[in-house]
User: What shape does this take?
Amino acid sequence: MIRLLAGAPGLAELVGSPSLFLLQVIFMTDLTPHSLLTRNPDLVAAGMNGDIVMMSIERGLYFGISGVGTRIWELLEQPTRVEALAQAIQAEYDVDEATCQQDLLVFARELIKHGVVTVATAG
Amino acid sequence: MTATPLYRAYQLLIASDCPLPELAAADASDAAIDVRIVFGDVGEGADHGRRQIGPYAWCAADELWLDVPEIGRFLVQQGQRITVQVQPGADLDSVRLFLLGSAFGALLAQRGLLVLHGNAVRIGDQCLICVGTSGIGKSTLAAGFLKRGYNVLADDVVPVDANCQAIPGFARVKLWRDSAEQLGVDTEQLERLRPGLNKFSYPLGARFESQALPVRWVYVLDKDILEQPQFSPILGMQRFLTLTHNTYRKRFIAGMGRQAEHLTRCGQLADSAHVVQLLRPRAGFDVEGLIDAILADVQQRV
Assistant: This one.
């Protein structure tokens, strides 16, 4: 759902080993259904023929989001809790609660890992 | 004070100390001058806190300093001014080639346009842009369209505005000798772009399209081992990579701090135009067959 698009403009590159970095993130990030996700305001995003491409000017990196990820990005226009995202996605897509929650946590960790969103667990 | 010659290109009124015979001369009018091209000292690349982005290029926000060894140095500022420092012994044809190429490409980007490396051809009331790496056959294809009576808006440097319209450049295409021959043009009658170069300036005359037109199709020309031309749509985020890859002098964009705007412009174009990879057969170059195939494809993607 998310791809690291380019280190420098014009270079397509996929994240080398998703499973490996995900492991790191799981240990790094204390992410729960209550976590509040907030878009990183320093990112610039643009719709791209149904997908979304965003860039970190600071880091010179581009990210692409596709599929359900684009809907999640839209929902994150306001800071939103993971559980609220899960409810919204469940209402709109044919997916059971457990799978939705699970996929959403995986996706949220990717967003956090790349600095696309920040997380606050308190509250 | 003698009046500086005025020209019109890219919908801009340009006052230039450097004669630009390929551009349309403009009458002195009340219209404000958009761009001034002056001869002068451009200083050093590192001046004014500029950062080096390549062996011969330095950038700051809305500023490009470019050195073309043995030809000249160019300072492009705020989308409004190009200072040209001609190197001793350089010929003005070569200077103009880089002025109208790299320097103008940077100027148009500074004015907020998405500048693609390719050419734009009028199809109905819209246009197609053909992009691709140098030498892949873009100008030969443009020549083929001209031969069939189609109009060309811009060659080599194609600016696209926020409404996804291609902006007309000026009335010439750059043709290699073999492309000119395909067009049935005697290169003896044409001016060389630079002394010793087998690439010629072909004046478009009435075949120049002076209207800005909506971009409906972007074809990315490449070649492969094939019998027939092959068309495959490029979708979603891949369109961004394609448009970025075919952005004119894309290294300038980051250097001049315009990536965010570039991303926005690419998104607008990706949403309003078809972006299609066009593979032509590697063996030979059947221009007529390729144009037939493109025109058929255009009909399918309205």
About this structure: The domain at 115-300 of chain B is CATH 3.40.50 (Rossmann fold). Chain B touches chain A at residues 235-237, 239-241, 244-245, 247, 250-251, 253-254, 259-260, 262-264, 266-268, 270-271, 275 (CB under 8 Å).
